[in-house]
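Course assignment 3, question 2. Fill in each field.
Student: A.L.
Task: Predict the tertiary structure for the chain below.
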Amino acid sequence: DLFGLAVMFTEGMTSRSREALSRAIELAGRLGDRQWELRARLGLVLFMHRRGDLKGALEGTKLIENLVTDADEPMAFAMMKSVKSASLYFSAQYPTALRLAREAHAYFRTHSNPSQIGRWGLNHSIYAQCVIAGVHWCEGRFAETIRACLAVHSEAEETGNPTSICQALSWCGCNLFLRMEELDLAQASIRRMREVAQDNDLQSYALSAIGFEGRLLFLRGEFGPAERCLRE
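Answer field:
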């Protein structure tokens, strides 16, 4: 499953990534290993989020809920909440998404463990906070949006994990700051994401940074350079 996530973050949303995650789920099921199946299913739902497969993400989230409901494992339950909150957020079910994201983040705030990224392939505290910022934006709470964005950026930088930093910058710093036309904040976020992505060969984020740069240039009226970035 970690191979599938690695391909997703470095090469992008390719069939190779999805096949690896699906194969991991199949093997874990054959072995009766609930832990590995949970890891792989979490990864597959993340893949679906990035691909915009909302129906598949919701279905995958239900399967994850079934795996963790009877398990006495608070960490896995909190991760399920973070993933479910994102699935609901993308489906515009904002109140429930916000509640679950806050519950997940509250757990991670008091149960911080750097090894969770290696074990589960993602920092779910960052994921939950990105949902919180996104819901604030969608429901029109702009001051709260900025505060949430800055908070998740700070936590991601403290972890030192490249994918966590890029995720926080992509969801919040680049995307939300551009939507709010906070252009100076957006520019700083884009530069930082490009730097981290290039230094760590995270091609999907490096290319996203070029796209965000194009949007920034467009908003500043620099249409020629904006078009070149977006075409690239």
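Instructor remarks: The chain has a mean pLDDT of 86. The two ends are 30 Å apart (CA to CA).
Grade: pending
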